[in-house]
Amino acid sequence: QKEVEQDPGPLSVPEGAIVSLNCTYSNSAFQYFMWYRQYSRKGPELLMYTYSSGNKEDGRFTAQVDKSSKYISLFIRDSQPSDSATYLCAMSVETSYDKVIFGPGTSLSVIP
Amino acid sequence: ETGVTQTPRHLVMGMTNKKSLKCEQHLGHNAMYWYKQSAKKPLELMFVYSLEERVENNSVPSRFSPECPNSSHLFLHLHTLQPEDSALYLCASSPLPSGANVLTFGAGSRLTVL
């Protein structure tokens, strides 16, 4: 079983839709949960991160962590064409250089 | 310039060539990383340098050779590569780990090995 699983998509939604992106993981010791966004021909950039369980909101973006189910989600409200990108989840056990584990990414297209 | 800058953005090389990828960060970070990104696969950590000393080498083939002359610059020297090494090579930096160890990535160098 892979440490972090993520549906690669592609996911295509109309503008204004609510988007739900998800990752599952196997290591119950993960404590830090991150979402990166990667536009075409660019490197990933951090969207938001959470520590342990719970929700975190930043504008149109909400990150949720359910440690009991080993499941994390990123919700995008009122999606825009500029949200079209690949979304990578990442997580780590502890503060360390080499323990950040990435998912393969979900490709999202928001159609005007 | 700000952030993390990678050059060249695109590189095509034959299996017998020697080339280098360069990364420069202007963020005052103490750690620098090389990641490999292949289609539909998670990012693979290749090398980590902290304060110019190598911290991690994830069993990367010796045809990849990193160099970190100072805390702002990182190189990846390439020689005798294989076609399966074709990928996007991402450089990243971070402050000394604290909390989530958030990485700042460059735009990547797209490598094609013929």
Overview of this structure, please?
- The complex is a heterodimer of chains A (112) and B (114).
- With 112 residues, chain A is an all-beta fold.
- In chain A, 0% of the residues lie in helices and 55% in strands.
- In chain A, strands 2, 4, 5, 9, 10 and 11 form a six-stranded mixed β-sheet that branches. In chain A, strands 1-3-8-7-6 form a five-stranded antiparallel β-sheet, with no helix packed on it.
- Chain A is globular, with a radius of gyration of 13 Å.
- Chain A starts with a strand and ends with a strand.
- The relative contact order of chain A is 0.34.
- By secondary structure, chain B is an all-beta fold.
- Chain B is 0% helix and 56% strand.
- The A-B interface holds A 4, 8, 32, 34, 36, 41-46, 49, 51, 88, 92, 95-98, 100-105 and B 4, 6, 31, 33, 40-43, 45, 48, 50, 55-56, 58, 90, 92, 94, 97-108.
Q: What are the SSEs and their pairings?
A:
The complex is a heterodimer of chains A (112) and B (114).
Chain A: E1 4-6, E2 11-14, E3 19-25, E4 32-38, E5 45-51, E6 54-58, E7 61-66, E8 71-76, E9 85-92, E10 100-102, E11 106-111
Parallel strand pairs in A: 2-11
Antiparallel strand pairs in A: 1-3, 3-8, 4-5, 4-9, 6-7, 7-8, 9-10, 9-11
Chain B: E1 4-7, E2 10-13, E3 18-25, E4 31-37, E5 44-50, E6 53-57, E7 64-70, E8 73-79, E9 87-94, E10 104-105, E11 109-113
Parallel strand pairs in B: 2-11
Antiparallel strand pairs in B: 1-3, 3-8, 4-5, 4-9, 5-6, 7-8, 9-10, 9-11
